[in-house]
Prior knowledge:
The protein is mostly helical. The chain has three domains: 2-68; 76-85 and 93-141, no CATH class; 148-212, no CATH class. Helix content is 64%, strand content 3%. A two-stranded antiparallel sheet has the order 1-2. Helix 8 packs across helix 10 (177-184) and helix 9 (166-172) packs antiparallel against helix 10 (177-184). The longest helix is centred in the middle third of the chain and has 21 residues, at 113-133.
Amino acid sequence: MKTEIAKAIALLTAEYDLPPFSPDRIAMWMTALSGFPAGSVAKSAANYMRTNKFKPQLADIVQGCVAQTPSAWLSADEAWALMPKSELDSCMLTDETAQAMAAASPLLAVGDKIAARMAFRAAYERLVEQAKIEGRQPKFFPSFGTDVPGRAAMLGNAVRKGQYLLEAAINVAPEFAEDIIKLSGVQKHPLLAAPDEKAKAKVKELLLTMRSHA
């Protein structure tokens, strides 16, 4: 990746007659761009040279890389819709949704749902934009409500959507392992293949033991 970034810098320097980059500036570009997939920096630089006559800034190349990266981020409205409506509900969070919800919570506490949603949207969109610039994808984690049986459906849905790994979901709620597997749409799994209820119980017991020692 460093070679790709160095080539992009060289091409941009030549095309726009830029002064040589200082070591500190090169290091800054390397840090900002090294997290993107291979090929994205070269493509961003090429697209910029093809469409812009003004001297590029680092932010221009970063934005070009961000535009190429497939996003698994939920929109602000999608994220808001998934937020728990009561203490009963479980949901999948990211650091960004959790922080945005913290911004909205005081308004929810006084009953102003419209203002709370606006505060959530503003905070979430700002946080996600920063994450995209840094080349980060969402990292989901479960937040459990008091409705214990409802956790299996939430986890199974998260696995099906690709937000959470199946084994991670089983690890956090091994008592619902079989339900999570079925709800996630997985057709073949050792637990489902167990020959009888006694064998299934042993697998569940093993999962609980592994969890207690994690």
